[in-house]
What we know:
Layout: E1 6-8, H1 12-25, E2 29-32, E3 48-51, E4 58-62, E5 67-71, H2 76-84, E6 88-89, H3 110-116, H4 123-126, E7 133-140, E8 145-149, H5 159-165, E9 173-181, E10 183-184, E11 188-195, H6 199-210, E12 216-222, H7 224-227, H8 233-236, E13 242-249, H9 251-265, E14 271-274, H10 276-287, E15 298-303, H11 306-318, E16 322-326, E17 331-336, H12 340-353, E18 356-361, H13 364-369, H14 378-391
Parallel strand pairs: 1-3, 2-3
Antiparallel strand pairs: 4-5, 5-9, 6-10, 7-8, 7-9, 11-13, 11-14, 12-13, 15-17, 15-18, 16-17
Helix pairs in contact: 6-11, 11-12
Amino acid sequence: MAVSECFHLGTADDVRDLLAWAVAEETPLEIVGAGTKRGFGHAVDARHSVDLSTLSGIVDYEPAELVLTARAATPVAEIEALLRQSNQQLAFEPPDLGPLLGAAPEKATLGGILAANLSGPRRVLTGAARDHALGVEVATGRGELIKAGGRVVKNVTGYDLTKLMCGSWGTLGIMTQVSVKVLPAAEKTRTVLISGLSASAASSVMAEALSSPHEVTAAAYLPEAVTAHSSVAYISGAGSSITAIRVEGPPVSVSVRNAALRELMAPHGEIEELHGHNSGRFWQEVRDVAPLIGEGDAIWRLAVPPASGGSVLDQLGNHAIEGFLDWSGGLVWCAAPADAVNAATIRTLADETGGHAMLVRAPDVLKAEVPVFHPQPETRAGLTRRIKEGFDPAGILNPGRMTGMV
């Protein structure tokens, strides 16, 4: 083998055989699909890489059964284009973070999205990406090819193993094929906008909307400084903060629920709304963190209890750190100067709520100074190590990506 080599693999058997060789030779490998999320985490400590980009294509799609099976490196954009033909969608609204991380748009793969467990604004209603994964074929760090789960919604055999692969960042195995559930796409979308709230007040308002009977499918808050970066004219020209509440579904139902939400939200501030096209553009911006793409040297992602999100964002603002809320306050995105002082502030705020903070985009010098992934309590860290040892005992898969060291 060459000193440094990129292996291009087209079948699951190829992947299994390569991993068997890597185990025998104790040779670490970097796992790459489209490469749109290589900016996440630390640089992998491996001389060889595995290019999975040709491991692509739809294997099976059964609209009536609400299930789709695809090879792991199939672009999400290709899957979504196919689903639109049957008026269906990936309901967890997978984000396209390529541009945020300096990569091209619409290149993210299904396997990459699941490996990172990335979900968009609809998570408040439909759950995380892992909740939509039905089955997986994976080559483990033992050089074995295994299957878990099934291809129909009602089959839950091995479902926990399927979920385990979601959020593993390619450190437990290489997904070669995945099955996901799909759902009907909304016929109509409306977004109710409330102007002028503080982040803390917006958290309460979003909670009120989500606890209403109006089946809210997304709730987000953008401070005035962030609304200015939107490409939606009403949002960028609002001159104030915006709290956004989305409803989707059949036209008659959406009209009724939208009117009821407007009435419910009226006491909290000036009310406007976005219709189909502008509503879609706005939520795509929120999903892809577009308002922060050109902001700050470091981008952070905080997962906190929804009731705490507004307070966290207000406190970040006291440190001149700009950001916004998604998931009704449960997800805080922020842009900050890339230094250890800001990192400590952000991590402390996450810790105080019982949440966690991930450094998504930053110069390598900051990644070398602070943990990229939130440090785990020792009991959880011990469990993580045991799981890693079970799937990848030789430590050949993406070594160092989550820890910065082998």
